[in-house]
């Protein structure tokens, strides 16, 4: 009953997954610290014991989103700093427990600690090389390794003697893991910020077309047998005879009305033209994002990078549809400037919207590379 009284309530439930994990891990480490105190009360370090308590309290404060000290009125985006606070304090508490735990406990944790070190430190890291040497000396490491001594007491003596190196290397691996997650979060923030900016640009283009339908008309005027018809994404004019400085061409049929092309374009263009084009491009981009999911490997990271990469495709598809048709209207591509119907315009908008994959594919590759560099627990990392 006394031991139970030393362990506080877990806390929660909270509405974010990583906060639940933090509360659970904090209680687990608190129980381990209490067990160490009971296991060897004479050797327990009061300074480290107090530090463990403070680190776990700080981790719980981060998980429960305690108010800032000093208080800041306008601070909404706290998730990143809170995650770093929780992770770093849990790592520090784990290191302190390893410092005061019995050698037999540290010896039992060596396989997991070795996996954690190998997961986050490069093979040429001096700390990792020394840690692997210590692990081999106690029979931990590759299959077939045998301890330097068959006496269990002697093996524990080795662990006790090398405890400082063990804890220091584990702490370095935890710091490297935190830096990897910071890199991942930074990349995710860049992707999200880019997606937000692209979304506002796409909305701006749609509003520009709504309030100024003649500023950037995505209309085409194919000429056939001396007559023309203005085709826009959402409307189409009657056939007419285009004028040349107000005078009809000599070969123009007299039955067709003589009109200026610019005037017909101004009449035919609608407020919804750019919006329709962008919606078609966005739909094509959504299909491309759904198809790209099959190439994204799952990960237990908490930052939602695959979701951010998929979200980036949507406004990009809307803008590439608009810009692609704008290039066609400017006769940038010879032979593809005379679209005959609104359906053809929307079909090309669909093609250009899906073509955003040519650009975002490079971002997807970089994102997957960043994800691969973050070797989380599903890649073999473990903690004591």
From TrEMBL:
Q: What is the top-level taxon of the source organism?
A: Bacteria
Q: Which parts of the chain span the membrane according to its record? A: 189-211, 274-293, 305-326, 332-355
Keywords associated with the record: Membrane, Transmembrane, Transmembrane helix
Record keywords: Transmembrane included? Answer: yes
Return the protein name: Uncharacterized protein
